[in-house]
Specification:
The complex is a heterodimer. Chain A is an alpha/beta fold. Chain A has ten helices and eight strands. Chain A has two domains: 151 residues, Rossmann fold (3-Layer(aba) Sandwich), CATH 3.40.50.1980; 122 residues, Nitrogenase molybdenum iron protein domain (Rossmann fold), CATH 3.40.50.1980. Chain A is globular and about 65 Å long. About 3% of the residues of chain A have low confidence. Chain B has a domain of 205 residues: ABC transporter involved in vitamin B12 uptake, BtuC (Orthogonal Bundle), CATH 1.10.3470. A two-stranded antiparallel sheet of chain B has the order 1-2. In chain B, a hairpin with a 5-residue loop joins strand 1 and strand 2. The N and C termini of chain B lie far apart (65 Å). The model of chain B has no long low-confidence stretch (mean pLDDT 89). The chains are: A alpha/beta, B mainly alpha. At the A-B interface, helix 1, helix 3 and helix 4 of A face helix 1, helix 5, helix 6, strand 2 and helix 7 of B.
């Protein structure tokens, strides 16, 4: 037993005090948590950066578990970008601490907290799903451009140029989304999904959003939640409800069944990309593609 | 360096959990670790409701208090309600977990709050989660200090209280006869278990803790009948699990906790088959020897 104690003491002593700073060679290595940030980096950095996202398509960021390889990627990265606002759970907390010694940034860092959806009861608890409001996401893109330019000042001009071109595209995406949602008749403008990810979407594009679950993907919907939602659907004669690619659809099926019992047929209008995008390489695997695909699905089902 | 950090954290947690697990297995309370992993939920929620913050220290405090409460409730139902210990564990943790779920849906539905998000760590992040002094000097992984500290506490507890723990575990009746309080030592042990598990959840995640609490002691149990040897074998198995598990994770590029737990399970399987006293092969051979072959 004494040996173990000694061994531990020596290990702990030997492992302390080790600064980690490396010189960069070649392209700027950027690691992002979600695919949405990865897409922003690709659009700004193009061929000048070597970007990679830890979370693949269809992954729930709240429940992501890192692999051994992820650690090496994070250690070798020149820049780490994460969403922040507690989207990454405990991992985000580690990043926050790491930002003191490494080039680590939350893309939501600069966004004015008053623009965020705060929890009704608790301060400092914000809805992290900022990418659903294209205008808010633009601020994240601007921030990403800033950090990329700082990390790789030689190419800063190219980043700025790429970024302004991309921001223009996002502007037109924002406009298109507003008019598309506007085309749904007012009483039909009710978006019902599995979990509360679409709050920003609802605020920005004037569509009422009702989520069955809370923000946490762990919390189970209560019986009353389901009944309330069924009442709402039947009363407003809503045509469709939606499922999400990264959340179980069991709960939303219960709502569909509940409406059937009340004599109102509601269909599942399709699956929306919420916490993760489609496969990389597809149109839905880009941020613009993901938003347009969601908007198309919503408009087609509700109109 | 990262490799060494992860393996030593894994080994330290394995030894801490394993040593306590030896007692738990002999007391037929091995599932206490799993129970605590669920039962801390209301503690987390209440800690958040009171403080409005989700940082690790607050969460650890809430979880720690609930962990101790869980073990107390289990023992209370077991002795006062004369319920079997497994039933008592089952009732306690499901009830507490349910309480947590209800609290979330009542008061914190719009906040992301669950063990996986705010409490459970991940062993892969050990080298990233550094302890940085206010003046900026880096002191190495924070979790290594925490788990090392817990290991020292647990070893001191087990060494100083060795005789009492031994007697109360194996022969409670004799213990009371010679004036050692079974209840007191049981609560002390359970307090140690709940602090260890909660601190380890925060360092390396739940799966790993639950498996390290049971699998290495169970393996050692099959290999020896001497309790001291069982403790040593557990510690040794735990270290091997950490080393081999890490390299398995490197090889398959998978979850480190998952790989370590799988190696722990594999060791148990090997012990089950090849143990010289309890193993399947040894038992078969003994049976054949007993049967008269001369017809």
């Amino acid at each position: 037993m004494k040996n173990i104690l000694l061994y531990t003491a020596i290990t702990i002593f030997a492992l302390s005090c080790q600064p980690v700073q490396k010189e960069r060679q070649g392209k700027l290595k950027v690691i992002t948590t979600t695919g949405m940030i990865y897409d922003a980096v690709l659009n700004i950095g193009g061929n000048l950066v070597e970007a990679e996202a830890l979370m693949g398509p269809g992954v729930d960021p709240h429940l992501y578990k890192a692999t051994q390889g992820d650690l090496a990627k994070l250690q070798n990265a020149d820049l780490i970008l994460y969403n922040g606002l507690h989207l990454e759970g405990k991992m985000g907390e580690i990043f926050e601490k790491l930002s003191r010694i490494k080039n680590v940034h939350a893309i939501s860092e600069d966004i004015d907290r008053s623009k965020l959806r705060a929890s009704q009861v608790y301060e400092n608890a914000y809805d992290p799903h900022i990418w659903f409001d294209v205008k808010l996401w633009k601020e994240a893109v601007v921030f990403t451009t800033k950090t990329l330019s700082k990390s790789d000042s030689i190419n800063a001009k190219i980043y700025q140029a790429n970024s302004s071109a991309y921001l223009k595209k996002l502007d037109s995406l924002h406009g298109a989304t507003i008019s598309a949602i506007d085309s749904i008749p007012e009483p039909q403008r009710l978006l019902i999904t599995a979990h509360d990810a679409f709050g920003y979407f609802g605020d920005a594009y004037k569509i009422r959003v009702e989520g069955l679950q809370g923000i946490s993907t762990l919390s189970e919907p209560g019986l009353k939640d389901i009944t309330k939602l069924v009442d709402l659907i039947v009363d407003n004669k809503v045509k469709a409800v939606f499922i999400e690619t990264s959340v179980s659809k069991k709960a939303i099926n219960a709502v569909v069944e509940g409406c059937k019992d009340r004599g109102h047929d509601v269909i599942i209008g399709g699956s929306l990309y919420s916490d993760a995008m489609g496969s990389f390489g597809q149109f839905e695997g880009t941020y613009i593609g993901m938003v347009s695909s969601n908007v198309n699905t919503i408009v087609n089902a509700l109109k | 360096m990262d490799t060494l950090y992860i393996i030593s954290t894994g080994a330290i947690v394995a030894i801490t959990c394993g040593v306590l697990g030896c007692y738990l297995i002999l007391k037929k309370m091995a599932m206490v670790g799993d129970a605590i992993s669920h039962a801390v939920l209301p503690g987390i929620v209440i800690a958040f409701l009171l403080s409005g913050s989700r940082d690790s220290v607050t969460m650890l405090l809430g979880a720690g208090i609930l962990g101790v409460l869980t073990t107390f409730l289990i023992e209370f139902f077991h002795t006062k309600g004369s319920l079997q210990s497994d039933a008592s564990i089952g009732v306690t943790f499901t009830w507490l977990f349910a309480l947590g779920v209800i609290l979330i849906s009542m008061y914190a539905g719009d906040v992301d709050l669950d063990q996986d998000c705010v409490l459970h760590g991940e062993i892969a992040y050990v080298p990233l989660d550094l302890w940085i002094l206010p003046n900026g000097s880096i002191m190495g992984p924070r979790t290594l200090y925490i788990s090392g500290f817990v290991l020292i506490l647990v070893l001191l507890f087990v060494i100083i209280g060795y005789k009492e723990l031994y007697i109360t575990t194996f022969d409670p009746a004799f213990a009371s006869a010679i004036g050692i309080s079974t209840v007191l030592w049981h609560y002390l042990l359970m307090g140690a278990v709940s602090l260890t598990t909660v601190a380890s959840f925060e360092s390396v995640g739940a799966i790993l803790v639950v498996s390290l609490l049971i699998a290495p002691p169970a393996t050692a149990y099959l290999l020896t009948e001497n309790f001291k040897k069982m403790l040593w074998l557990t510690a040794f198995t735990g270290m091997l699990v950490s080393i081999l598990g890490y390299y398995l994770a490197v090889w398959i590029d998978g979850s480190i906790a998952g790989a370590m737990s799988s190696v722990a399970g594999l060791f148990f399987l090997l012990a089950l088959i090849f143990s010289p006293s309890e193993g399947i092969i040894a038992k078969k051979l003994r049976q054949q020897k007993l049967q008269p072959n001369n017809s």
